[in-house]
Design a protein that fits this description.
three-stranded antiparallel beta sheet; binds 4'-deoxy-4'-aminopyridoxal-5'-phosphate; 14 helices; seven-stranded mixed beta sheet; alpha/beta
Amino acid sequence: MTKQLLMIPGPIEFDTKVLSAMSVPTVSHVAPSFINCFSNCISLMKTIFRAPKGQAFIVSGSGTLAMDMAGANLVENGDDVLVISTGYFGERFKTILDRYGANSTILQSEIGGVVSLEAIEKELQSKPYKLLTFTHVDTSTGVRVNPKPIAALCKKYDTLCILDGVCSVAAEEIAQDEWGIDVVVTASQKAIGVPPGLALLMVSPKAMLVWENRKSLVANYYSDFANWLPIMKAYEEKRPSYFGTPPVNLILALEVSLKQIQEEGMQKRFERHRFLAEAFVAAVESIGLELVCKDNKNAAFTLSAVRYPQGVQPVDFLGAVSSRNVIVAGGLHPAIKQEYFRVGHMGIISSSDLIAVLSAIEYSLSKNGYDFESGKALKTFQDILNQDN
Ligand code: PMP
């Protein structure tokens, strides 16, 4: 079978050592070796999220469960919440919070844009919001927001601040504690570098206190921190415990990947993602393609959402790319779904992977009748790589 390169914005290509950890014989969830591994994962998460005082949760589920857990535990009926949305996943957060009885307001950016700090501050001034959610990188638009000033506004107005970091943690810079972000949620299958199946949360002491002081019962049994907190504390203190059987092999793989991330070094890792993303964007722009993101300074380093040129049809384009054994994703934002494709570039990827992607994109564009200088995107990319050496 021919190897295919999976370049969608999650799941991504995984390191063979991470995958090998999933194929070892499964041990008991209370085996001393597994307790040790879980405990290591918790402390590595604190380092990677830069949240030394945070409470980590590692639970079987996807990123949506991590969002759901944040909503279920921190929202009570009638709470005023503010959702900052830069696309599909911002809207999902509103749906989740509404399910738990929130009185929600959404500030929606135009497609490819961001919500201004002025608009956020004006809304926070208008009434006392209990919490605010926002998306670090919205995977439907490839737009990144800067979490730091938004977290600072939340602090100023005494509003809890919840960041959807599903498409950013371990690739885009986050200093959770220093920036004052109360909750960061993510999942395993993106820049964390582990196959799908883990919901990860890091919760500040302030947010844990808000949960402790709830007046009503958490309306979701599986998500309730009350069930998971004793388990996380037990693993951290290296004691056996049980609430729901953890996905043992995924957590073994998580330890391997988190160690690799820590070994690379966070600054180096952010820099690698930035460099490759900027070179990739320059390459596609050099042949006349445009990003969905309106201002390149807000373009994500984890994925690029690229508009098709006039006349190129999604099915034909994606089909020709995949005939070159490269898998990229179609559009996701409902309003422009047919107008763009997405390329993930996070985790263990290297420049060689992006050369393969650019080659497949050029092949597909020329096959689909787009008039451009063949080889130019590849050359642009290569020139940027060469300048860096
Ligand atoms: N938020 C963002 C920003 C995402 O990219 C995704 C997944 N694409 C999710 C939330 C939901 O995660 P999952 O698919 O793992 O439930």
